[in-house]
UniProtKB/TrEMBL annotation:
InterPro entries reported for this sequence: Acyl-CoA_dehydrogenase, AcylCo_DH-like_C, AcylCo_DH/oxidase_C, Rhodanese-like_dom
Keywords: FAD, Flavoprotein, Oxidoreductase
Protein name: Acyl-CoA dehydrogenase
Organism: Mycolicibacterium arenosum
SUPFAM superfamilies membership: Acyl-CoA dehydrogenase C-terminal domain-like
Length: 334
């Protein structure tokens, strides 16, 4: 909330997303693999949140509020895939963008097979196949999908792609697509880690052991402090990435640096935050019925999508080695 108690548009958007997400978490399906939440999706479409940047002329800062807020509630919909990835890429390729309904993206890095396609049966699938000299983009009609799911139960499929009836784009577009995906996952991970932290703080405050709340024990308090520190580092890195893409655009060196840095910092926060959260919850934290499981398993799965933290760390290392002034890179002046 802004100074003086006045709500800003971002505050109003955050409250709206939180309300929609909370209601979905209370009434939506909790299955493994996840079932697409049709009621939640209709709520997002009715409020204009399903295509915030691609159809509502909103910016990436607003998209970050939506993605992070939905991640807090483990929303079973392809929010990032629809708005930030598929709708953007289809428009970039001059293809017709459906005005309604969920979308997803099938990335074939080798030009032949798309692995880990999110929600492949629940929305129209846009192919993004990288070949030696171009990015081939086109809608896939009724593709054959080998079904699977990630750690959190989100559907992920494998599709052998057909490059006929596709549009050729420069390979620079593929770079922006992967940066967009990495940025979106960073924002979503922070939302999931915020949920895990909130649940842990509440649990240790309310759970009484040996006549006093868990958070009164020194070891527990130290663990909570560690968790909070890791979360704040991840949140700061994601905020820097969001500021960079808003100010400079995804096709800038500033955005590439900030998103790469965020993917490292946010990804590395997943393990300590998740571990501490489950330790302090005890046995109940590992059950699929508990909200903590849905939050931490999503964070762990998303950390490896659109490049692992290790891959992004190596990219930062290569940039430092090839830079004319590595110190300028270290302090973020790129």
């Amino acid at each position: 909330m802004a100074r003086g108690g006045t709500e800003t548009p971002d505050d109003e958007l955050r409250l709206l997303v939180d309300d929609i997400g909370r209601r979905a978490a209370e009434t939506g399906p909790r299955t493994l693999p996840n079932a697409f939440d049709d009621v939640l999706w209709r709520a997002l479409e009715d409020t204009g949140l399903s295509r915030l940047t691609s159809a509502q002329d909103a910016g990436l800062a607003e998209a970050a509020v939506v993605l992070g807020g939905l991640a807090r509630w483990s929303a079973a919909v392809p929010a990032a895939e629809t708005d930030v990835l598929a709708a953007w890429l289809a428009a970039k390729a001059g293809l017709e963008v459906p005005a309604a309904g969920p979308l997803t993206i099938a990335i074939a890095d080798d030009g032949a097979t798309a692995y880990d396609v999110p929600w492949p049966h629940d929305g129209r699938v846009l192919l993004a196949a990288r070949t030696a000299d171009a990015l081939r983009v086109g809608w896939l009609d009724r593709p054959d999908v080998v079904d699977g799911h990630n750690l959190a139960g989100e559907p992920r499929g494998t599709i052998v792609v057909d490059l006929s009836d596709t549009v050729e784009l420069p390979l620079d577009v593929f770079r922006e697509l992967t940066l967009r995906g990495a940025w979106a996952r960073c924002v979503q991970i922070v939302g999931a880690l915020e949920k895990a932290t909130d649940l842990t703080v509440a649990h240790t405050r309310d759970r009484v052991q040996f006549g006093k709340p868990l958070n009164a024990f020194q070891a527990v308090a130290h663990s909570l402090a560690t968790m909070a520190g890791e979360l704040e580092r991840a949140r700061a890195a994601a905020a820097l990435a969001t500021a960079a893409v808003c100010d400079y655009g995804f096709d800038s060196p500033q955005a590439e640096y900030a998103v790469t840095l965020a993917k490292v910092a946010v990804g590395r926060a997943v393990d300590p935050v998740s571990t501490i959260a489950h330790q302090l919850h005890g046995a109940i934290g590992v059950t699929i019925e508990h909200d903590l499981w849905w939050a931490t398993m999503r964070a762990r799965s998303w950390a490896d999508e659109f490049g692992t933290p290790g891959q992004h760390a190596r990219a930062l290392g290569r940039a430092a080695l090839t830079s004319d002034d590595p110190w300028e890179l270290v302090v973020g002046r790129v």
